């Protein structure tokens, strides 16, 4: 059943919506429109004149073999971040939901990382993984493992994946915990009386009942991995070494701001936008069907 | 099918003792009702039998096997919860089949058992529905079905009918009684509704503040309540309780106002002892001599009438008469207890004096 709220004042609803609409217009619709406009124009080096070039920017971008490499890195990165951030958060939430000692302190600590700016978080990770000054990095080297993410692309990718996931774990944790707490205790108890052990209870009762939360987080985490991890990558590896940690969003910045190719960069933004819209649509179309909304 | 033995069982939540040592042996196939007011520990005791709550002291044995340290899944019991606790993401069929699948029972037999239960409970048309698509009464029946397909050693019910409306409750009560007669499975049934207790139970365990006040058949509990608490809890309207004193020869009870009510048999050893005197409203009748009351309120229930009278000393006295009212408010009336209708309780401990 839907609850309907009615307003006496005809203007009030619009007034209440206005701030959100304004934010969306200024920070989303306007830049997106600009990106689309620029993606079909070519600017001269000084940014004074621009020329309409149809889809030249797009053919250029898509024809660049480097771009496909970046796409591959992005896919590996996004899938890994989503799976890792959700898996770890779910595990922690299940533990926090069971009766353990100090659950309150534990919950608070888990939520803190979310309040940290990406750059600050990245510095933290540097202190851990830097091969010269980082505690863990030095320990690895002391054990004879050749750890240096500044030279080894694979290691760099692993590190940015960990850093990006770590930040999202807090967010996922809060939602998973709330989702778990919304499941009536007696349903779980009924399952244990029916003969299900903890593992079976989790997979046949808890996990299906958690599916609306899981689905929501899947969409949010994919978008996070695609768009919001720029700060982390920028602070940790600047996309290097080589292009080992260059994701699509990082490349947009690299080509547009650093290399001053506004048309190409805008074309990439548009492609990125299309990819994410398509992904979200696919998720809603195919995954949501399996979701049970209680 | 099995016996359930509860031996000096205790439960503490920190410093609070919720169950203070309960002893009862439930026979194979017996229907035991746990009856008591809210917060007396009924659910706690039931959940200890189920294995959902740890046992602080004592022992619980099901079918002769001590289960104190067994998980719920290993106790071979089925439970019906107050809120039904159905699996919301499963169909009615899957709700009932869940426990059977886990036990590795062949598909054909699962099908047969669920179909049979569905037939008994008239759920056949709903097997493909989700719980959210059922009415409260239908959900209740699915919860019952989930319990009976398992064919467990014992059924546990925690106020299974309290979320239903009055009519449906009566109907389901009869249905539960029929099921129990047919299946003959040992049952523990928690309720605070005395009508449910009286009609369903082979024996009732009346609980108060974590102790068993009395264990007995419904009629024993009604006819010979072991304490003032039981006397007040069983019977509607509740029993009248007056302060009294046994006379110096041990032959009668004196109540304030000068009434002298003869005892069925003399008890010279109790001469002079202060007592509480209990008389059920339905055991009072209009008489030539006895309590003189002024009628304050008349409740006509149809089949009978409850009269609220005031004694000269200000105490209230309830009288239940058959049929429609023959008296009116502010009338004066003289009533007396019928023969053998007196219950005596110790004035201090509240325990019954035989
Ligand atoms: N987890 C707990 N922690 C502390 N005290 C508890 C806990 N669970 C129950 N109690 C206390 O134990 C006592 C018995 O509770 P219980 O739920 O068994 O009552 P009940 O007889 O089932 O009551 P109702 O008819 O209201 O369901 C209550 O006083 C309650 O406050
Ligand atoms: Mg209860």
TrEMBL record, chain A:
Instruction: Enumerate the InterPro entries for this protein.
Output: MetI-like, MetI-like_sf, UgpAE/MalFG_permease
- Places the protein is found: Cell inner membrane; Cell membrane
Sorted keywords for this record are: Cell inner membrane, Cell membrane, Membrane, Transmembrane, Transmembrane helix, Transport
User: Domain ABC transmembrane type-1: where?
Assistant: 71-283
Q: Specify whether Calcium is a keyword of the entry.
A: no
Keyword Transmembrane helix among UniProt keywords: yes
TM ranges are 12-33, 75-96, 108-128, 156-180, 201-227, 267-287
Task: Provide the topology term for how it sits in the membrane.
Answer: Multi-pass membrane protein
Family the UniProt entry places it in: Belongs to the binding-protein-dependent transport system permease family.
Per its database record, what is this protein's job?
Answer: Part of the ABC transporter complex UgpBAEC involved in sn-glycerol-3-phosphate (G3P) import. Probably responsible for the translocation of the substrate across the membrane.
NCBIfam families, alphabetically?
Answer: PRK10561.1
Oligomer and partners: The complex is composed of two ATP-binding proteins (UgpC), two transmembrane proteins (UgpA and UgpE) and a solute-binding protein (UgpB).
What name appears for this protein in its UniProt entry? Answer: sn-glycerol-3-phosphate transport system permease protein UgpA
From TrEMBL, chain B:
Family matches, as PROSITE patterns: ABC_TRANSPORTER_1, ABC_TRANSPORTER_2
Protein name, entry field? Sn-glycerol-3-phosphate import ATP-binding protein UgpC
Task: Cite the entry's keywords alphabetically.
Answer: ATP-binding, Cell inner membrane, Cell membrane, Membrane, Nucleotide-binding, Sugar transport, Translocase, Transport
Q: Mind telling me which InterPro entries this protein's record contains?
A: AAA+_ATPase, ABC_transporter-like_ATP-bd, ABC_transporter-like_CS, ABC_transpr_MalK-like, ABC_transpr_MalK/UgpC-like, Mo/tungstate-bd_C_term_dom, NA-bd_OB-fold, OB_MalK-like
From what organism does this protein derive? Azospirillum endophyticum
Taxonomy of origin reads: Bacteria, Pseudomonadati, Pseudomonadota, Alphaproteobacteria, Rhodospirillales
The protein's matches in CDD domains, at most eight in alphabetical order, are given as: ABC_MalK_N
NCBIfam families attached to this UniProt entry: PRK11650.1
The reply to whether Membrane figures as a keyword in the UniProt entry is: yes
Give all residue intervals belonging to the ABC transporter domain. Answer: 4-234
GO MF annotations in UniProt: ATP binding
Q: Which Pfam families match?
A: ABC_tran, OB_MalK
Q: Which family does it belong to?
A: Belongs to the ABC transporter superfamily.
């Amino acid at each position: 059943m839907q609850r309907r709220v009615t307003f006496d004042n005809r203007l009030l609803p619009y007034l209440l919506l206005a701030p959100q609409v304004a934010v969306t217009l200024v920070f989303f619709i306007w830049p997106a429109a600009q990106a689309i406009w620029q993606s079909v124009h070519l600017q001269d080096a000084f940014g004074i004149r621009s020329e309409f070039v149809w889809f030249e920017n797009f053919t250029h971008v898509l024809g660049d073999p480097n771009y496909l490499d970046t796409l591959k890195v992005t896919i590996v990165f996004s899938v890994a971040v989503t799976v890792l951030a959700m898996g770890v958060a779910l595990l922690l939430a299940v533990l926090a939901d069971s009766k353990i000692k100090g659950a309150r302190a534990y919950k608070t600590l888990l939520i803190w990382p979310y309040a940290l700016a990406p750059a600050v978080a990245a510095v933290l990770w540097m202190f851990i993984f830097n091969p010269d000054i980082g505690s863990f990095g030095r320990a690895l080297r002391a054990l004879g493992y050749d750890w240096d993410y500044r030279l080894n692309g694979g290691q760099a990718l692993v590190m940015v994946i960990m850093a990006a996931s770590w930040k999202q774990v807090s967010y996922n944790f809060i939602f998973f915990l709330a989702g778990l707490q919304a499941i009536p205790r007696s349903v779980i108890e009924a399952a244990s009386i029916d003969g299900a052990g903890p593992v079976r209870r989790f997979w046949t009762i808890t996990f299906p009942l958690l599916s609306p939360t899981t689905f929501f987080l899947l969409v949010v985490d994919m978008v996070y991995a695609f768009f919001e991890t720029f700060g982390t990558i920028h602070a940790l590896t600047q996309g290097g070494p080589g292009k080992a940690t260059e994701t699509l969003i990082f490349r947009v910045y690299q080509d547009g701001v650093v290399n001053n190719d506004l048309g190409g960069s805008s074309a990439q933004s548009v492609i990125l936008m299309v990819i994410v819209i398509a992904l979200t649509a696919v998720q809603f179309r195919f995954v949501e069907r399996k979701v049970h909304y209680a | 099918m099995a016996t359930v033995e509860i031996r000096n069982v205790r439960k503490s939540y920190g410093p609070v003792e919720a169950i203070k040592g309960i002893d009862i042996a439930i026979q194979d196939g017996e229907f035991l009702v746990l009856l008591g007011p809210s917060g007396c520990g009924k659910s706690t005791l039931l959940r200890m039998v189920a294995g959902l709550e740890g046992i602080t002291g004592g022992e619980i044995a099901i079918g002769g096997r001590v289960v104190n340290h067994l998980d719920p899944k290993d106790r071979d019991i089925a439970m019906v919860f107050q809120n039904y606790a159905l699996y919301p993401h499963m169909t009615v069929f899957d709700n009932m089949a869940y426990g059977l699948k886990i036990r590795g029972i062949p598909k054909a037999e699962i099908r047969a058992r669920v179909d049979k239960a569905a037939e008994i409970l008239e759920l056949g048309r709903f097997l493909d529905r989700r719980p959210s698509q059922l009415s409260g009464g239908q959900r209740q029946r699915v919860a019952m079905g989930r319990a009976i397909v398992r064919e467990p050693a014992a059924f546990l019910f925690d106020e299974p009918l309290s979320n239903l409306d009055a009519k449906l409750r009566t109907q389901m009560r009869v249905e539960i009684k029929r099921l129990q007669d047919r299946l003959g499975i040992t049952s523990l049934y928690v309720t605070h509704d005395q009508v449910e207790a009286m009609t369903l139970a082979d024996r009732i365990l009346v609980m108060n503040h974590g102790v068993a006040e009395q264990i007995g058949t419904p009629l024993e509990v009604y006819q010979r309540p072991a304490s003032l608490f039981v006397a007040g809890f069983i019977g509607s309207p509740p029993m009248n309780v007056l302060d009294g004193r046994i006379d110096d020869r041990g032959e009668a009870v004196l109540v304030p106002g000068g009434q002298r009510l003869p005892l069925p048999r003399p008890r010279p050893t109790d001469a002079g002892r202060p007592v509480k005197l209990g008389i059920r409203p339905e055991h009072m009748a209009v008489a030539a001599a006895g309590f003189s009351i002024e009628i304050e309120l008349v409740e006509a229930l149809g089949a009978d009438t409850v009269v609220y009278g005031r004694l000269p000393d200000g105490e209230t006295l309830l009288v239940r008469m058959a049929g429609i009212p023959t008296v009116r408010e502010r009338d004066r009336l003289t009533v007396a207890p019928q023969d053998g209708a007196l219950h005596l309780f110790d004035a201090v401990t509240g325990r019954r004096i035989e």
